[in-house]
Amino acid sequence: MADIRKGAVTLKGNPVDLAGAALTAGAAAPEFSLQGNGLEEVTLGSSAGKIRIIATIPSLDTSVCHVETKKFNEQAAQLANVEILVVSMDLPFGQKRWCGAEGVDKVRTLSAHRCSKFGEDYGVLIKGGPLDRCLCRAVFVIDGAGTVRYAEYCSEIAEHPNYDAVLAAAKA
User: Fold this and answer.
1) How far is residue 128's CA from residue 57's CA, in Å, rounded to a whole number?
2) Which of 30, 126, 131, 156 lies at a C-alpha separation of 20 to 30 Å from 7?
3) Which residue in the list 65, 134, 136, 154 is annotated as catalytic?
4) Residue 93: its pLDDT value, please?
5) Cα dihedral sign, 87-121-155-126
6) Helical axes 92-102 vs 63-76, angle rounded to 10°
7) What pLDDT is attached to residue 107?
8) How confident is the prediction for the chain on average, in pLDDT?
9) pTM over 0.90
10) For residue 159, what pLDDT is reported?
11) Tally of domains within the chain
């Protein structure tokens, strides 16, 4: 079982515990196996050689996650050789429906619903409270060799990440 980071982030000012160690720049990005919205398996190695922006969110059906995913979709056109992955515990069917309804086609939504390993390995799995087993809001930039170049855990789950810093890290 992963270590619990007590009160690592907040949700509307209330402390939220996270499972797993926080990733930091310079660390090797953990391999993962997630499910795409077409039910296909997607791994970190699936996009080796590309820069990856991995955004973890509680659910596409919340207002901040909705806006964040659409913003990354808009930014994707400006980023050559960058793949943007948005990961949540939403079921792949719901992710596909949401992307179709919102015209989101430049980012790839992935579901971590089958097991908690991804959430623990990336230090984003919420333990306890109203969002138990959801993922907290975080963004990672991983280079083509699989090294974390940028890691941001949003201290308040209901707030947006630093988009400028994420994009700068992806372009560096």
Assistant:
1) 16
2) 30
3) 65
4) 97
5) positive
6) 70
7) 97
8) 96
9) yes
10) 97
11) 1
Q: How many CA atoms lie within 13 A of 66 on its CB side?
A: 9
Distance CA 82, CA 51 (A): 5
The helix or strand, by DSSP H or E, that contains position 110, with its residue range, turns out to be strand 108-111
**Length in residues, the chain:** 172
Question: Which residues are CB-neighbours of 72 under 8 A, at least 6 positions away?
Answer: 53, 55, 84, 86, 107
Say if CB 22 and CB 2 are below 8 A apart: no
Give catalytic status of residue 65 as yes or no.
yes
Q: Which domain holds residue 98?
A: 4-171
CA distance 139 to 124: 10
CATH code of the domain in which 139 resides: 3.40.30.10
Torsion of CA 85, 38, 60, 123, to 10 degrees: -50
Question: 110-135: b or e for each residue (b if 16 or more CB lie within 10 Å)?
Answer: bbbbeebbbbbbbbbbbbeeebeebb
